[in-house]
Specification:
The complex is a heterodimer of chains A (659) and B (77). The longest helix of chain A has 21 residues. Chain A has a 6-stranded mixed sheet with strand order 2-1-6-3-4-5. A 6-stranded mixed sheet of chain A has the order 8-7-12-9-10-11. A 3-stranded antiparallel sheet of chain A has the order 14-15-16, with helices on one face. Chain A is built from 27 helices and 17 strands. In chain A, 38% of the residues lie in helices and 12% in strands. Chain A is globular and about 60 Å long. In chain A, helix 21 packs across helix 24. Chain B is mainly β and 77 residues long. Chain B has a 5-stranded mixed sheet with strand order 2-1-5-3-4, with helices on one face. The chains are: A alpha+beta (659), B mainly beta (77). At the A-B interface, helix 8, strand 13, helix 9, helix 10 and helix 13 of A face strand 4 and strand 5 of B.
């Protein structure tokens, strides 16, 4: 009755052996569930040097400690593995309706090892689990495969499905795992690992409940949160055309103050993440032209075509993930788009609009809708795919790639036709350019040679999220995380809404201060980053949503919900100690697997080397090495190498993982 | 009475206490918050500020524990 099931399912795909394993309480007390349980388990069981695409790698699919407990906005699931993209710790998470189904089947997570001799899927319900033949599904896209499985495994209700598309089957290192017909756990190459195991899908048909310590208390708190979010709405007059002006105000803002996180809920309720499409153009958040341009290169007449109002005009239905009261998701009608191949698609996220919009100087919104569905079905990460296309265009522009290399495609900025044709080659891993780009820009640059690496924008092998840290230097520290390039970890703009300092004594309070201070490496900025990271580790251990996290502890208090679920009655600072343990374990995982943390520090264009020559972030180069050094020092890691100090390992009881 | 205020960067923070609250006399209205925060007079009618996340008029009477929030831009995605 503590919010977790206390069990995992272990599946050896080589032998077909399936068994449940009890997990001691102290593991949850030290790591929570979700990403925490994931790093604990993978650290212990993946040997150093294991091939990420080999049988020794383990793919974990986990729910969160607060998922299915009556708490709100805690319905995300996590995929964890050794990343084939970075060679280190890999994680990705996603919303939709899958996460509760894991616990409804009686376990907190499912861990796959080995490689199946033939394509299979795992079916699980409360009676048990079995591997079933997936030959008839191999080659199907993620949406088709999910529909077939839901029909095939239907009982009194449709099961929940996590599935790979052709990208994962073909071992594209930028493949993800798809659920709910097009939502995707996209990052770290988790879909490639699933494909390497010949595991097409996981089908969950559970209905079990999750006991918690104080269900009445949780119910009362959830009502309180829901009422606040329900009442928080932007006024009707607030339309998308106003967003660029907001961005301009942000760019001119010289002072920073703590803000009300509920405003994020108001924006997300109305627009979803696409609010940033145009707002981010005028404040500099959006990377332009493969991170070398600005609003000077992608002008108003272009970016206004990505106005969220134009996207909402196609929205036929809004939807909420499991236990969510914000509801930033939506379905869009695209029957009249291009060749009419797709009837509908999930409302494209900002990341997709940006990676196939300003990053490529493409203002063809219909093409973005089309690409969104194409990649969701393929199970390919839109951030990494857009990044790879931008890289290829720049290589083409500089004569490193020619029409002979691209199969006749003229790769020009803003040429949506060529982009779609190139993506088809990547999804199908067509010999030549498609095969090369399907593994992301780092591997592509190595294969192409001829100096192509100077156009490959990545952090430790992974494409960065579509947010420029030169606007928000704290984001640069978060990009330099053990899972490099992940965009939804934190940033100053989020720290300023979270009010962690009200609960955690060492978290620096945000008092009105000059924005310029954020650019100066300091212990204060480092501690802000660390507090956000530890809280994010707790959020990912609980199955929480980033958009709930940034509501702040005034409106969505994770510490309180964890106590209501577990009955542990820990203080906020004790919980932050758990966050610290998870973060340190992720770093130790990387070190075990030979990753040098210094290789995960953002460099080149991302940090402003060379600096942009136009736009609101013109001339900025981040002192990121010093920022990261101070962050490591304040984490208790060696400030020069990023290696956690022995004393910290003892303090966090992580010796078990380092022996 | 205590009013929780999430102020904007252009506001004066002099009267906001450590808990983010303003102390106002009983019967105070939204316009009194603006005055305390030294919001320029011309801005008051066009600003987007809410009381308990509802947009209301300047003469709206406040009550103990009300939340006054100024709209600020946030990103994400």
């Amino acid at each position: 009755m503590k919010g977790y099931m206390g069990k995992i399912l272990k599946v050896d795909l080589t032998t077909g052996d399936i068994r449940q394993e009890n997990i001691p309480d102290e593991v949850y007390e030290n790591f929570l569930s979700g990403v925490g349980l994931g790093v604990y388990y993978l650290h212990k069981h993946i040997p150093a040097g294991a091939d990420p695409m080999g049988p020794e790698n383990i793919l974990g699919i986990l729910s969160g400690l607060l998922t299915n407990t009556g708490s709100l906005m805690t319905g995300r699931w996590m995929a964890v593995c050794k990343s084939p993209l970075t060679g280190g710790w890999g994680d990705a998470n996603c919303g939709g309706t899958l996460s509760p189904a894991i616990k409804q089947c009686g376990v907190d997570g499912i861990f796959f090892t080995g490689i199946s001799p033939k394509p299979v899927y795992l079916y699980m319900d409360k009676e048990g689990a079995e591997l079933r033949d997936a030959s008839h599904l191999w080659g199907k896209d993620a949406v088709e495969a999910e529909e077939i499985l839901q029909e095939e495994c239907k009982t009194n209700k449709k099961p929940k499905v996590a599935v790979i598309g052709p990208a994962g089957e073909k071992l594209s290192l930028i493949a993800g795992i798809v659920n709910d017909a097009g939502r995707i756990s996209a990052r770290s190459g988790v879909g490639a690992v699933m494909g390497s195991k010949r595991l097409k899908a996981v089908v969950l048909q559970g209905s079990g409940k999750t006991g918690i310590a104080d269900s009445a208390g949780m119910s009362a708190y959830s009502k309180e949160v829901a009422t606040k979010v329900k009442n928080a709405n932007l006024p009707k007059f607030f339309k998308g055309f106003l967003l660029p002006y907001m961005g301009m105000l942000m760019a001119k803002q010289k002072k920073v103050v703590a803000m009300d996180g509920m405003l994020a809920a108001m924006i997300n309720k109305k627009f979803g993440t696409i609010a940033v499409n145009t707002l981010g153009m005028t404040n500099g958040d959006c990377p332009v032209k493969n991170w070398q341009g600005s609003v000077v290169d992608f002008k108003k007449r272009q970016y206004k075509k990505l106005n969220p109002d134009r996207i909402l005009a196609r929205e036929t239905k809004k939807y909420h993930c499991a236990s969510c009261v914000i509801g930033c998701g939506g379905m869009c009608d695209i029957r009249d788009v291009r060749d009419g191949r797709y009837a509908h698609t999930h409302k494209p996220e900002y990341e997709t609009c940006s990676s196939f919009g300003c990053l490529l100087l493409n203002d063809d919104l219909e093409a973005i809708f089309y690409i969104n569905e194409m990649l969701n079905r393929a199970g390919m990460d839109t951030i990494s795919a857009g990044n790879a296309v931008a890289f290829a265009i720049e290589c083409f522009e500089n004569g490193i790639l020619t029409e002979e290399d691209t199969g006749g495609l003229r790769l020009k900025w803003g040429n949506a036709e060529a982009v779609i044709a190139l993506l088809e080659k990547m999804i199908n891993r067509e010999e030549g350019i498609g095969d090369i780009l399907a593994d992301g820009v780092k591997g592509a640059a190595e294969r192409i040679g001829k100096g192509a690496e100077r156009f490959a924008v990545h952090v430790g092998g992974q494409a960065p999220g579509m947010h420029d840290p030169k606007l928000d230097p704290l984001l640069g520290i978060h990009f330099s995380d053990p899972t490099p390039g992940r965009h939804t970890i934190g940033g100053a703009v989020y720290y300023n809404t979270m009010y962690l300092w009200k609960e955690v004594s060492w978290a620096p309070p945000v008092k009105k201060h000059p924005k310029s201070e954020e650019y100066i490496p300091s212990d204060r900025e480092a501690l802000k980053s660390i507090a956000t990271t530890y809280y994010k580790m707790l959020t990912d251990g609980a199955g929480g949503c980033f958009f709930a996290m940034i509501l702040g502890v005034d409106h969505w208090n994770l510490f309180k919900m964890l106590n209501l679920a577990t009955g542990w009655n820990l203080s906020a600072e004790e919980y932050m100690g758990i966050g610290r343990r998870i973060q340190t374990a992720r770093q130790l995982f990387n070190l075990k697997h030979g990753v040098d943390p210094r290789d995960f520090i953002i460099a080149g264009r991302i940090k402003g080397d060379p600096p942009l020559t136009g736009g609101p972030l013109k001339g900025i180069t981040l002192a990121i090495e010093d920022m990261v050094r101070l962050t490591w020092k304040n984490c208790g890691w060696d400030e020069n190498t990023g290696v956690p100090e022995d004393a910290l390992i003892q303090e966090l009881h992580l010796s078990e993982l380092t022996e | 009475m205590k009013i929780r205020v999430y102020a904007a960067p252009f506001c004066s923070f002099e009267d906001i206490d450590e808990d983010g609250c303003l102390d106002l006399p009983e019967g105070a209205v939204l316009n009194d918050v603006y005055k305390k925060l030294k919001v320029p007079f011309l801005l008051r009618r066009i600003l987007f500020a809410t009381v308990n996340y509802r947009r209301v008029g300047l003469k709206t009477r406040l009550e103990e524990g009300d939340v006054v929030s100024f709209f600020s831009a946030l990103g994400g995605g």
